[in-house]
Amino acid sequence: MSSGVRGESSKAAEGRPFLQFTMGSQVYLDHNATTPVDPRVREAMRPYLEGAFGNPSAAHAMGREAKAALEGARETVAELLGTADKDEVVFVSSGTEADNLALAGAALAYQERGRHIITSAVEHSAILETCAALEKWGFSVTYLPVDGEGMLDPEELRRAIQPDTIVISVMHGNNETGVLFPLEEVGAILRERGILFHTDAIQSFGKIPVNVRHLKIDLLSLSAHKIYGPKGVGALYVRRGVRLQPLLQGGGQERGRRAGTENIPGIVGVAEAARLMFLEMPGEQERLRQLRDRLEATILERVDGVRVSGRNSPRLVHTSNFSFDGIEAQTLVAALDLEGIAVSAGSACHVGSVQPSHVLRAMGLSREQVEGSIRFSLGRLTCDGDIDRIVEILPQLVARLREKVPVVK
Ligand SMILES: *Cc1c(COP(=O)(O)O)cnc(C)c1O
């Protein structure tokens, strides 16, 4: 059986214009969970895994070399976010850490002003679990609902604001449905009131333009491994003047906001990954839109009793969340896996446990619909042939599952 990414070959580049991996007959449709490291990113990182191993805090040539790489990466990320001030970028160990530092760091730094936080019911667990911890520490949190299309109502947000609201965190693109929240409207509401605005842009960054100045964002999280960079590195944009209580104490790196010797190869990797995403954005997004539209149109045509969540909302182009009546998504995921097709049921972010998606529940789907939902997330590895395969196999598998014919032995 084929499994996973096996290295590069020229033949495998066919139909996969941006990434040259051979996947065997494997179809990978789980890009929202993680992506492979782009070979060009790996090459950019390589010197810093080999001879250029200096500590950027060191006062010698090797230290200066590492420091130059660090500051160059910071400048690249700052520029892509729409700010000329590179000191507004803090490198961290993951998207999860960026979310924790933003929300807990801001809540703890501004608690003398108030202890109320606003977020949405459909955030990633990195935000929701941070909110749960903050509630234990005496903060109160309002979880904004979404409508049946997964959309947030800015008016609802306006009404949730209290005199002691200090920070609000609403995501940009949803990792389960791709639905995009109206950040521009949120930013306009908050800035005039002096409430901090954080957004988890981990799914949208590099896929659509995200300009922190235009959107009036104070804090923004991003992660390398969702954009063909390495795992275990991310960044937090922190607008100049915004105070954060650091979560790690130590050597004062990252201007005291994140102690610990910097992960130079990873940081070089996230900057190069981001640069490539922006460079290839227009063509790649259009390519994925066409693949996604064909996938959705064909499945909706060939299968009865299926809906696509958030289809009528503005969405990222690479995410399709299907709910099939009368099937167990877990069984369908396992059956697709046997066919060499990798997809996710609900959220993949709860290690080892299958929890019904809180995102789809918040959108008003019934328990049965939620349990019959699977997410296809497309990306650079996705080619026309993958969509051909899935639209051929999926209707048969769904039909067999509905007839209760075993599809997994
Ligand atoms: C993946 C993801 C995270 C977590 O990022 P890690 O780098 O895996 O810790 C947070 N939020 C969203 C929306 C994500 O997709």
If you had to describe this structure to a student in words, what would you say it looks like?
It is a single chain. With 409 residues, the chain is α/β, with parallel strands linked by helices. The chain folds into two domains: 10-37 and 281-404, Aspartate Aminotransferase, domain 1; 40-275, Aspartate Aminotransferase, domain 2, CATH 3.40.640.10. The chain has eleven helices and 13 strands. Pyridoxal-5'-phosphate (PLP) is lined by residues 32, 94-96, 99, 124, 126, 171, 175, 200, 202-203, 223, 225-226, 234. Pyridoxal-5'-phosphate binds next to α3.
Short key terms for the protein model shown above:
single chain; alpha/beta; Aspartate Aminotransferase, domain 2; 2 domains; seven-stranded mixed sheet; four-stranded antiparallel sheet; 11 helices; 13 strands; 13% strand; disordered N terminus; binds pyridoxal-5'-phosphate
**Beta-strand content bin:** 5-15%
Q: Structural class from helices and strands?
A: alpha/beta
Largest sheet: 7 strands, mixed
What is the string of helix and strand elements? EHHEHEHEHEHEEEHEEHEEHHEH
Q: How many domain regions?
A: 2
Q: Which architecture of the largest domain would the CATH scheme give at its second level?
A: 3-Layer(aba) Sandwich
Indicate the CATH topology of the largest domain: Aspartate Aminotransferase, domain 2
In the CATH scheme, the class of the largest domain would be: Alpha Beta
Overall body shape: globular
Please report the number of helical segments: 11
What is the percent of helical residues?
25-40%
| Biggest sheet: strand arrangement | 2-8-7-6-5-3-4
E-strand count: 13
| Uncertain parts | 1-15
pLDDT averaged over residues: 92
* CATH H-tier superfamily of the largest domain: Type I PLP-dependent aspartate aminotransferase-like (Major domain)
Bound ligands, each once: pyridoxal-5'-phosphate
Q: Compute the gyration radius: what is it?
A: 22 Å
